[in-house]
TrEMBL record:
This is CidA/LrgA family protein. Keywords: Cell membrane, Membrane, Transmembrane, Transmembrane helix. The chain crosses the membrane at residues 31-48, 60-80, 86-104. The keyword Cell membrane applies. The keyword Transmembrane helix applies. It holds the Pfam family LrgA. InterPro entries: LrgA/CidA. One of its GO terms (cellular component) is plasma membrane. It is found in: Cell membrane.
Amino acid sequence: MPIVVGLSVLLGFQLLGELLARGLAMPVPGPVIGMALLLGGLLVLGRVPEGLRRTGEGLLRHLTLLFVPAGVGMMVHFELIRADLWPLLITLVASTAITLAVTAKVMSRLSRRDEEGR
């Protein structure tokens, strides 16, 4: 039963995010707003309820299944992807490199700050 409650909480926050995004005409996707609201609620609560923790762990355990629809969509639209293959590849490689560089810089600064604090 705790898993049903956890899933209801997750879907409730997603619904709340969708309502806010559409009602206020926000340029942010509803699920992102819902996740931010959930994070705020968990920070105020100070802990993660058992049902929500178990539900999240279950979803993460089967995360790869959630990529199946995206893979099928890529196969269905393969001709569109082939038409813009080079711009897509260049964008993917560049964004990955930028993400790695920013992550390395942040980790470097955080580890330096942590060493100074000790």
